Every structure is written in structure tokens, then in C-alpha cells.
Amino acid sequence: MTILATRQELSDFLAEIERRAYKQALFAVQDTHAALDIVQDSMMKLTAKYATKPIEELPLLFQRILQNTIRDYYRRQKIRSLWTSLFSSFTPDDRDKNHEDFDILETLPIKQESNDPGTQLEKAQLIQLIEEAIKTLPLRQREAFILRYWEEMSLAETAIIMNCSEGSVKTHCSRATHTLATILKAKGVEL
Length: 191
Known about the structure:
Elements: H1 7-29, H2 32-50, H3 58-87, H4 117-135, H5 139-150, H6 155-162, H7 166-186
């Protein structure tokens, strides 16, 4: 007999994963508003379709929904890009294309373990370097790396979420870690 998640357990689960899911989506799409929408859509899909599932099944289900929602975002962007390029010949090129340089990652609090300002600064700088390095990874490598090492998913769970073989997950993770190590070493971070 399986025990289904209560409303409170579902609410607690969503509160617990919200920030990590947001960062994961932000790494994937690199747009703050789109990342927020993706996380919100993923949470809504989970509650609408899987609220009656056992609590232990929710992390894997949510990660699968989140990754599919990210893929849907890229599909929509591809279609929009196609239509935009088709109609761009009808619009003048002197449009203003400025974007704000606001980075939501700078506003998120970082959990501090030490009150020493030097240690806190060093940790914050290291986190920033790692986040910037992760953003440079190709999409599938970034997805595999975040699921395996940040979300601590098993190899099998990651393969299910990414809809690929376990061997592919290993390859993506290996390439990601080598790339990240090279980038961080070039910035003076010894691993």
C-alpha cells in the first residue's frame, strides 16, 4: 500500500525545490523571466497531474516535468525566431534593442556558514565563477551536470529525465566536469 502525498507535503516539497529549480531553469535558458515562468509552469503541472502520487515519487516527476518544460521553451523560441526572421524584412533596423543588465542571481541570498567577511566574500566569488562556468556548457552537458551533481539524481534517474541512455549521461557529465575544471583552473581555482 502506497501512501499518497498530503497537501502539506506537496506544498513543503515545492517550497523546498523552488530556488534550486529556478537556478536550474536560469542556467538552461539564461533569461530571468523565462526561468520564473518555466518553474511556475512545472510546479503547476506537477500539482495538476501528480498531486495524488506518493511523496517519494515527486522529485523524479518534477525533474522530468522541469526538463520537458525547458525543452518546450526552446521549441517555442525556435518557432518565434523563425517567424521573427521572416517578418524582420518588413520592419526598420533602427529599433532599440537594449536589455537590462539585471542579474537575479545577485539578489538571491547565499547560505553562509561563517561570519568571517573574508570567507564569505571568497565563497560568493567562487559560487559566481562556478555559475558563470556552468552557463558556458552546452545544453545537454549543463542539464546532465546539474541533475547529477547539484540535484544529486542517480545515473538511472538522470537518464530517464533526459530521455537518453546512462552511457550518454556519463559522457555528458564527464565532458562537463572536464570543461568546468579547465575554466576554473584558468581562473585560478585549484580543485
